[in-house]
Each structure stands twice: as structure tokens, then as C-alpha cells.
TrEMBL record:
<keyword id="KW-0804">Transcription</keyword>
<dbReference type="InterPro" id="IPR011006">
    <property type="entry name" value="CheY-like_superfamily"/>
</dbReference>
<keyword id="KW-0963">Cytoplasm</keyword>
<keyword id="KW-0902">Two-component regulatory system</keyword>
<keyword id="KW-0597">Phosphoprotein</keyword>
<dbReference type="InterPro" id="IPR036388">
    <property type="entry name" value="WH-like_DNA-bd_sf"/>
</dbReference>
<protein>
    <recommendedName>
        <fullName>Regulatory protein VirG</fullName>
    </recommendedName>
</protein>
<dbReference type="Pfam" id="PF00486">
    <property type="entry name" value="Trans_reg_C"/>
</dbReference>
<dbReference type="InterPro" id="IPR016032">
    <property type="entry name" value="Sig_transdc_resp-reg_C-effctor"/>
</dbReference>
<keyword id="KW-0805">Transcription regulation</keyword>
<keyword id="KW-0238">DNA-binding</keyword>
<dbReference type="GO" id="GO:0000156">
    <property type="term" value="F:phosphorelay response regulator activity"/>
</dbReference>
<feature type="domain" description="OmpR/PhoB-type">
    <location>
        <begin position="132"/>
        <end position="232"/>
    </location>
</feature>
<dbReference type="GO" id="GO:0000976">
    <property type="term" value="F:transcription cis-regulatory region binding"/>
</dbReference>
<feature type="DNA-binding region" description="OmpR/PhoB-type">
    <location>
        <begin position="132"/>
        <end position="232"/>
    </location>
</feature>
<feature type="modified residue" description="4-aspartylphosphate">
    <location>
        <position position="55"/>
    </location>
</feature>
<dbReference type="InterPro" id="IPR001789">
    <property type="entry name" value="Sig_transdc_resp-reg_receiver"/>
</dbReference>
Length: 232
């Protein structure tokens, strides 16, 4: 990550919230805006953002493929702004690998703080954990140092940052039930709200990647009214 973090804001007609842009700039960050993911992809040879704020409806202009290409092109934190926390836009953003989703109506200062926290987590992840280790469960191996997961046949399985953080939290306490609030704090460093689907979406994504039957999951188990548990 550069000494002066670079923030790229994607907004229709580049009409991003001026207060949010001012907060990023006053926080010592370099900020630029583009009108859509296609424009951002055209500029990728000259722009290396550390954080992308996606302020548009989902699916975005250019479709979900454009969003996926944008996420794959940059090793940057990705925040999606959407109308409501439980809206299809937020769920789609999480499904496609966003690190965080925020209601557009929130105070720009909250969005700015969440962006700063995400940048701090990314910088910490780049430095690596103080005590990296390999965690094994049901034949799977989670490498906390390299942020990697391999299946029982030794094949690598790609995880988003949110998926990895969630699985690492569950794997650190096998056989123990973790609440959605505790998991969300680990993944995004924020409090859970009843309308927040972040953890549920990430759990569903992880179950698919672990080859789980969604009707009868055996590894990541739902404890109704409490949270989730990784079977030891």
C-alpha cells in the first residue's frame, strides 16, 4: 500500500458525494472519480487504488461481469454503497466479493471511517499475522499466513477477504458457537444489526466453496437464534 492511500470512487456521471470526497482528502488520501466500472478498467494501467467505493445501483452498468472484472483487476478494498442494508444491491455486492456494504444514506463520516478501517485491515493483512499457522478441519487446510485454503485433494480454493476472515474466525474456535455480531466484528469491525445480511451471505458462499449441501450443512452449522459453528 502506498504512503498516501489512493481512493477510487465510482459514481454515475462522477456525481459522488462531495462531503465524502472531502473527508477522504482531508484524511490524507488521493481521490479520483469515474462514471462506471468500464471507465475504471480502461484506466487500470495508470491507476492503482488501495480502496474502491462503488456508488451505483447493482447490477452495475456493464453488468455483473464488469463488477467481477473490476474486483479481479485491482488488489484493492471494495465498499459498495446501496439504498438499504437488506436490499438486492447489498446482497449482490456481497455475493460478488465486496469487503463491506453501506447504506448510501449513512453519514459520510461513517463511510469514511469504515473505509479507513478497511485500509488498516488490508495493510495488516499485507504485513501478515504475527503467528501464522495452518489450521486443519475435515481434510481442509487453512493457511493463515498466506490467506490460502486447500481442499482435501490439495487443490487451492480461492476465497475473498471476507470469506477468509469469516472462516479464520470459525476455525480459530472449532466446536464453539459464534454470534453474528462477533463474526461481523471480526470481518468488518462493526456491529451487527437485525437487517444486516453480511454474515449470512458470506456463510452461504463459504458453504458452496466447501462443497456443502445447503439443505444439510455438516461443516458450518447454523445454531438458530445464536449464530454459526465450525464442526470440530
Amino acid at each position: 500500500m502506498s504512503a498516501k492511500p489512493v481512493v477510487l470512487v465510482i459514481a454515475p456521471q462522477r456525481a459522488a458525494d462531495p462531503d465524502l470526497l472531502a473527508l477522504f482528502r482531508s484524511g490524507g488520501m488521493s481521490v479520483s472519480t469515474v462514471a462506471g466500472p468500464d471507465e475504471a478498467l480502461r484506466q487500470r494501467n495508470g491507476s492503482h487504488p488501495d480502496l474502491i467505493v462503488f456508488d451505483t445501483e447493482m447490477p452495475p452498468p456493464g453488468g455483473m461481469e464488469a463488477f467481477q472484472a473490476l474486483r479481479d483487476a485491482y488488489h484493492a478494498g471494495l465498499i459498495v454503497l446501496c439504498r438499504n442494508a437488506d436490499s438486492l444491491a447489498c446482497i449482490l455486492g456481497l455475493e460478488m466479493g465486496a469487503d463491506d456494504v453501506v447504506e448510501r444514506s449513512r453519514d459520510p463520516r461513517e463511510i469514511f471511517v469504515r473505509g479507513k478501517r478497511l485500509l488498516a485491515r488490508l495493510e495488516e493483512a499485507q504485513a501478515g499475522p504475527s503467528s501464522p499457522r495452518m489450521v486443519a478441519f475435515a481434510g481442509w487446510h487453512l493457511d493463515t499466513g498466506r490467506h490460502g485454503l486447500t481442499d482435501p485433494n490439495g487443490r487451492p480454493v480461492r476465497l475473498t477477504r471476507g470469506e477468509f476472515a469469516l472462516l479464520a474466525a470459525l476455525a480459530a474456535s472449532p466446536g464453539q458457537v459464534l454470534s453474528r455480531d462477533a463474526l461481523l466484528d471480526h470481518v468488518s469491525h462493526r456491529e451487527w444489526a437485525p437487517t444486516d445480511r453480511t454474515i449470512d451471505v458470506l456463510v452461504n458462499r463459504l458453504r458452496r466453496k466447501l462443497g456443502e449441501d445447503p439443505r444439510d450443512p455438516r461443516l458450518i452449522v447454523t445454531v438458530h437464534g445464536v449464530g454459526y459453528m465450525l464442526q470440530a
